[in-house]
Specification:
Elements (H helix, E strand, L loop, with lengths): L6 E5 L3 H13 L3 E5 L2 H10 L4 E5 L11 H12 L4 E6 L4 H9 L5 E4 L5 H12 L4 H10 L5 H6 L1 E5 L3 H13 L3 E5 L2 H10 L4 E4 L20 H11 L3 E5 L4 H11 L3 E4 L5 H14 L4 H4 L3 H11 L4 H8 L3 H15 L4 H20 L1
Parallel strand pairs: 1-2, 1-3, 3-4, 4-5, 6-7, 6-8, 8-9, 9-10
């Protein structure tokens, strides 16, 4: 008897996109269900289990303020927890995309304007390679994995949109004992950072093939820089390998993001790269206080450091002001500070800047 096919769900109000996505998923030997609204999606989730769902953020034509896709993501999380979701849309800010990843459990997000079939197929393949949560739970009960922490400790994230450079960096990092994750876009990188722990990141600043949600086209080639603040708050040492060679720009990146090293591609040398990686690996300080924060607390602290009020933070993260206050109270307690300015000093400049701020 032939086993039933694995099912996928496409939720999009545009029939053309439903057809394109269904064709690609069918080529991956998936049985595809389609929906054009929240109600149709919920019914499909109740009727059959799915391994992957591709969800458009706006389910009303040309409505930039329609976020029905988030309701679908929430329904997937409640009704079909073994289903991984991909947010696919043309209408979103970076903050909203981050919310989809953190609060609604999306696997990644892709932008329609820069959609590539091969990238989409690769993302689906990665999802299908993940065991369902029930299988993972069973395997943990049957066979504990005491070496899991070591695997996390030796993991590195490479973010580079050029396939040749990805291969070079992956090879060099694997040679020195890292477990390497590679990706080509802001969305994929952010998804990895939300799901896994890394001890090092190697990032190209100019992700020209990125699926970033930057609404400012002038910034579209510096999507790598958007990952730097996240990495700093996570306590992840970061090495930049980039074609950017402007001295003022390099100096600004060092000053604003406290990166570990900046390597220009035109002067790249394999032995020098290995040496820098080894030095960063053994010498990078542990940001114990910052690492004690939860993901949501780091997000609140990051927005606080950018000068946002409680109300503005709440709007960015789609939470209430009371929830913001609760997160800030926890942040202050963990950082052992009592004021917004002291917390901001730690977020922006680390403990050296904080020490300077209270002694001057």
């Amino acid at each position: 008897m032939t086993p039933p096919k694995i099912r996928a769900l496409v939720v999009d109000d545009d029939s053309s996109w439903r057809q394109i996505l269904s064709e690609i998923l069918s080529d991956s030997d998936l049985e595809v269900d389609v929906a054009g609204s929240v109600d149709e999606a919920v019914q499909a989730l109740k009727d059959q289990p799915h391994r992957v769902a591709v969800v458009d953020l706006s389910l009303t034509p040309n409505d930039h303020n329609n976020y029905d896709g988030l309701r679908v993501l929430d329904a997937v999380r409640r009704l079909d927890p073994n289903c991984q979701t991909i947010l696919l849309t043309g209408f979103a800010t970076v903050e909203l995309a981050v919310t989809a990843l953190t609060d609604y459990g999306a696997f990644t997000f892709l932008r329609k304007e820069s959609f590539h079939r091969s990238q989409f197929r690769d993302t689906v393949s990665r999802i299908l390679a993940i065991a369902p949560q029930s299988s993972i739970a069973a395997s943990r009960i049957e066979k504990p994995q005491p070496t899991l922490q070591k695997e996390f400790t030796d993991r590195v994230l490479v973010v580079e949109d050029d396939a040749g450079w990805r291969n070079i960096l992956e090879e060099l990092l694997a040679d020195v004992g890292f477990h390497v994750r590679v990706c080509a876009s802001f969305g994929d990188a952010l998804g990895y950072l939300r799901r896994e722990k890394f001890s090092l990141a190697v990032i190209d600043l100019s992700l020209k093939g990125s699926t970033s949600y930057s609404m400012d086209a002038s910034n579209s080639e510096l999507d790598g820089s958007q990952l730097l603040s996240n990495n700093y708050l996570e306590g992840i040492p970061t090495i930049i390998v980039s074609g950017v060679s402007n001295p003022e720009e390099i100096e600004r990146i060092y000053a604003e993001h406290s990166i570990s090293a900046f390597i220009e591609k035109r002067a790249f040398d394999r032995e020098t790269f290995r040496r820098i990686v080894a030095e960063v690996r053994v010498s990078h300080p542990t940001f114990s206080k910052l690492s004690a924060l939860t993901e949501r607390e780091r997000e609140v602290l990051n927005l606080l450091a950018r000068g946002l009020t409680n109300k503005e933070i709440a709007e960015k993260l789609f939470i209430t002001t009371n929830t913001v206050k609760r997160h800030l109270k926890a942040v202050f307690e963990k950082l052992e500070v009592h004021t917004r300015s002291a917390a901001t000093a730690i977020a922006k400049g680390g403990f050296e800047s904080y020490t300077s701020s209270i002694t001057n």
